[in-house]
Amino acid sequence: MSTSVEIALTINGTPRRLTVAPNLVLADLLREALGLTGCKIGCDQAVCGACTVLVDGLPTTACTTFAFELDGKSLVTIEGLGDGGTHPVQRAFLDHTAFQCGFCTPGMILSVVALLARHPDPDEATIRQWLSANVCRCTGYQMIIDAVRAAALTGAT
Questions:
Q1: Which of 43, 82, 94, 97 is found 20 to 30 A from 148 (Cα to Cα)?
Q2: Domain limits of the chain?
Q3: What pLDDT is stored for residue 35 in this prediction?
Q4: 5-79, what's its fold?
Q5: Architecture of the domain delimited by 81-153
Q6: Helix, strand, or coil (residue 60)
Q7: pLDDT tens digit string along 122-154?
């Protein structure tokens, strides 16, 4: 078995070629090798959503995705949103105080970006369904739902 795998991917708009161990998970690659610490490790079992990133536009749990699976893919982390400014979904979370401790916030925001790309005007049931993969222990979710509705009104994607 090979001790390393070469992959080519795009991370936050920048093409990268990397050599990774076959057992390296994406969360560890992002946090330890690339310094992209917005991806949080909460449960290490793909149930809390804190490690959510976008792979080819889809929410993906980085704690259970092997880095080699990203070969040829496009990856967006929380650090890659907003083109250097504040993304409209981030602004809506700020405006609606849709976070407290902030641990779940990066994964939550990326899930909302993916949601709004597919459902620009989601109803509450759709919002709740999309966010069911993201656990927040602080807010009670209503402020998050309000932020998603506000972001939808701005046409955020």
A1: 43
A2: 5-79, 81-153
A3: 97
A4: Ubiquitin-like (UB roll) (3.10.20)
A5: Orthogonal Bundle (1.10)
A6: strand
A7: 999 999 999 999 998 887 789 999 999 999 999
